[in-house]
Amino acid sequence: MAKRTYRFIVFKIEEKQKQVIVEKVGEPGQSYEDFAASLPADECRYAVFDFDFVTAENCQKSRIFFIAWSPDTSKVRSKMIYASSKDRFKRELDGIQVELQATDPTEMGLDVFKSRAN
């Protein structure tokens, strides 16, 4: 993912074709809230999020997060497909620094990003 082309990318597995497609991209100016709102409440997704933060030494930094979104309410079959495809798909992405697995929004809250970014 080229630096700053996108704030985030949401990926979806097309089950019939067994391939991962880009469902949504976020412009660099978009926020964490825009990103969180792009994940469906009851379907699995993969996502990449470019997280900006300021270190204790007051340096601007960013970390590229890979998020495996697998809400409790999604279908079991879907969870299995996403789980079994995750490592292979993640290897195709460049520059991933942190991985998050989330089954509900609190597991990928802004506070979680902050604590995992450092």
From TrEMBL:
Presence of keyword Amino-acid biosynthesis: no
Keyword list, A-Z: Actin-binding
SMART domains in alphabetical order: ADF
InterPro entries: ADF-H, ADF-H/Gelsolin-like_dom_sf, ADF/Cofilin
Stretches assigned to the ADF-H domain: 1-118
Annotated family: Belongs to the actin-binding proteins ADF family.
Name the record gives this protein: Actin-depolymerizing factor 1-like isoform X2
Annotated source species: Coffea arabica
Gene it is expressed from: LOC140036403
